[in-house]
Amino acid sequence: MIAGGRRLTGGLLVAAALVSLAGCRRGFEVRDFANPEALFRGALQEFEQGKWANAIVGFERLTLDLSSRDALLPATYYYLALAHEKQREYLLAAQSFARLTDAFPSDTLAPRSMLGEGRSYQNLWRRVDLDADYGTKAIGTLRVMLTAYPDAPEAAEARDRIATLEDRLAKKDYETGMHYLRTRKAYDSAIIYFDDVIETYPSTPTARLAWFGKLQAFRARKWTDEAKDACVEMRKKYPSDAEVRDACGTGPGADSVGTLPTPPPAPPGA
Length: 270
Prior knowledge:
The structure is a single chain. By secondary structure, this protein is mainly alpha-helical. Helices cover about 70% and strands about 0% of the residues. It has a domain at about 170-270: Serine Threonine Protein Phosphatase 5, Tetratricopeptide repeat, CATH 1.25.40.10. It is built from twelve helices and no strands.
């Protein structure tokens, strides 16, 4: 009896330990929270601890449980979007950010959320040589944000991101123009792409390179007058640029034997 009792007691202790261990391993469970407020606090704690997947589970459930007028819903959308962004799930992040701004455009989180949407689309276009649809979508989103919330603290970052994205788009067209110029000797096609960069993205650093590409194409076609006109414009736009002086000289016309700078190699990505 004593031995048997000892064995029973030992077995119960082992079983209790296993139950306790299983409970520790179960992790974050939505059903453990008594109400939406408790679940929000729990999901936020998971987020703050870097447990993005758990946070997503909690916040996603809250989007179903909270009423459309609940004061917690904007923050739920926002942290759900941030958790997706931390997981590099950028399309899901953009969609969650948009849910907030669409449903609560007057909420204090709305400008930050629209910035996050644009940032997420920007992160979906990481390479200049890939399709630029997400890049243009990012620019469109950020421009809408600046129109809707021009005085928001996030406006400066939005403008910086637009400038970065526009230069990426400019580089994409510039590299296409250089491909036609270098590889295919299709000078007319190259000029079209260089003109697009110059006219569409005039304030980007790549616009300057497009002027040199255009000048090179004019000289390759032996279009002397067009080359002279290009040099006049280049000297106006870049009066202190040593490479422009080397390419065009300092007189009113273009020096047809001027030295053009070596174009940068085509970048593999953004």
